[in-house]
């Protein structure tokens, strides 16, 4: 610990990270350099929202992984009493809270032969708080400022990551595993909203549709504002029918929603599975073709790319208003 007694090097290492996996590893490295213990596990609720589970950050921890219920109990205990210490089977367990905006969002579990010094405990709290703050900044940089959905830049990175994983896992389309799907969603006749009601109301419509999207998909799915009135969703489903049902549920929610001043609106979407590695542009182009089909068939519908006759998937009448 003497070589980095004040934690300055750790602060620099953690705060210079611009990608979440590298940030996680920087924290793990920093904690492992504290020389009063070697056994530890870090649990963090990365969404910073109550009710969501805190996940194990260092998967190679030698400490047996706790259940979601056990982690929640620990977080509740350290919320009330800050650092907690217990003695079991000849070693000491120390539980250090991870704070963000005054709330405990995780816990560092340490097993050691003797009680940690106050200096070591304070350094641990210090680096954990720096990590949580940097994680929040990374999350904010990935968001669209109007809707707080993930932004277009984050979309490209996440699609590449999922497509690469699909190529490695070689999950067959007809297997019983859950698959990733890409959907492109567009608000029908949105130009009319801006023309008739103005851009302020148009922004409100985009914001409300974004909220409906977030409400209709799981926290582990990814919802993006792709551009203008267009959205993208990366989500998991058991098969094409399951994926279609998810998108139709959302479509129905939008159709039934009473948008202030505007009244009723609809959305169209196109979707496709991600079974193997493809470039982002290629995947988006296929989902777009399915979306265009939905538009050309009357809007307010969901189309799978697998339904299309590929050679006739482009609109034949250039005068058709797609949006």
UniProtKB/TrEMBL annotation:
SMART domains: GGDEF. It catalyses: 2 GTP = 3',3'-c-di-GMP + 2 diphosphate. Transmembrane segments: none annotated. SUPFAM superfamilies: Nucleotide cyclase (SSF55073). PROSITE patterns: GGDEF (PS50887). Its EC number is 2.7.7.65. InterPro entries: Diguanylate_Cyclase, GGDEF_dom, Nucleotide_cyclase, Rev_trsase/Diguanyl_cyclase. It comes from the Bacteria. Residues 178-307 form the GGDEF domain. This is diguanylate cyclase.
């Amino acid at each position: 610990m003497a070589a980095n007694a004040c934690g300055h090097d750790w602060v620099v290492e953690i705060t210079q990270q611009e990608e979440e996996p590298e940030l996680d590893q920087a924290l793990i490295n920093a904690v492992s350099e504290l020389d009063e213990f070697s056994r530890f596990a870090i649990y963090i609720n990365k969404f910073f929202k109550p009710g969501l589970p805190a996940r194990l950050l260092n998967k190679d921890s030698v400490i047996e992984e706790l259940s979601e219920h056990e982690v929640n109990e620990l977080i509740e205990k350290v919320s009330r009493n800050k650092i907690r210490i217990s003695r079991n089977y000849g070693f000491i367990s120390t539980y250090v809270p991870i704070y963000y905006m005054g709330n405990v969002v995780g816990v560092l579990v340490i097993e050691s032969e003797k009680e940690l010094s106050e200096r070591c405990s304070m350094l641990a709290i210090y680096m954990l708080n720096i990590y949580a703050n940097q994680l929040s900044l990374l999350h904010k940089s990935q968001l669209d400022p109007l809707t707080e959905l993930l932004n277009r830049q984050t979309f490209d990175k996440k699609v590449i990551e999922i497509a690469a994983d699909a190529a490695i896992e070689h999950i067959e389309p007809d297997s019983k595993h859950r698959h990733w799907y890409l959907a492109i969603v567009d608000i029908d006749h949105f130009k009319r909203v801006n023309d008739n009601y103005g851009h302020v109301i148009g922004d409100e419509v985009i914001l409300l549709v974004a909220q409906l999207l977030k409400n209709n998909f799981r926290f582990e799915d990814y919802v993006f504002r792709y551009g203008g009135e267009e959205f993208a969703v990366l989500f998991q489903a058991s098969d094409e029918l399951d994926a279609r049902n998810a998108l139709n549920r959302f479509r129905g929610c939008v159709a039934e929603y009473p948008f202030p001043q505007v009244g009723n609106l609809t959305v169209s979407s196109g979707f496709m599975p991600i079974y193997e590695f493809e470039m982002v542009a290629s995947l988006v182009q296929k989902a777009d073709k399915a979306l265009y089909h939905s538009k050309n068939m009357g809007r307010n519908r969901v189309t799978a790319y697998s339904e299309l006759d590929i050679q006739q998937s482009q609109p034949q009448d250039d005068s058709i208003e797609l949006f």
